[in-house]
Write a structure and sequence with these properties.
mainly alpha, 5 helices
Length: 133
């Protein structure tokens, strides 16, 4: 469950970054508190963080489900742990890029790399369920 805990930590880090950016956007006059009612009126400095937070509850849902399924079916081994850690590393890279330079090509590479790693883990899990591995 350590990769799961690492993802939970990432989510809380993103929440803290978002809170900080929103606070300073209001304090600097870049935004008014009322702008946070709708994402479309949120300033760029914090909307990218809010978007990244949404990202942490999309593809990672499959990660969390797989981690629980692997645990319940005794499918956790060195390969699955390595795959899960690689996936989490890709999420940290994705978040870092999204919250700093927001270079779309680099961000999308991190995303797709993690998505492929997670897909491989799900394929391994399917084989595990059949008893083939």
């Amino acid at each position: 469950f350590w990769p799961v805990m690492a993802h939970v930590l990432l989510v809380y880090i993103v929440y803290l970054v978002m809170a900080r950016r929103r606070y300073f956007a209001v304090k600097s006059g870049e935004a008014r508190v009322g702008q946070y009612k709708m994402r479309s009126t949120e300033p760029v400095s914090s909307v990218t963080v809010a978007n990244n937070l949404i990202n942490q509850f999309e593809l990672p849902v499959l990660f969390h489900a797989l981690c629980l399924a692997l645990f319940v079916t005794n499918g956790v081994n060195y390969l699955t742990l390595v795959l899960m850690w690689i996936f989490i590393l890709s999420r940290y890279v994705h978040a870092w890029v999204h919250l700093t330079s927001n270079r779309v090509m680099l961000r999308s590479r991190a995303f797709f790399f993690g998505a492929v790693v997670l897909l491989l883990a799900w394929i391994w899990f399917a084989f595990h369920l059949t008893g083939a591995v």
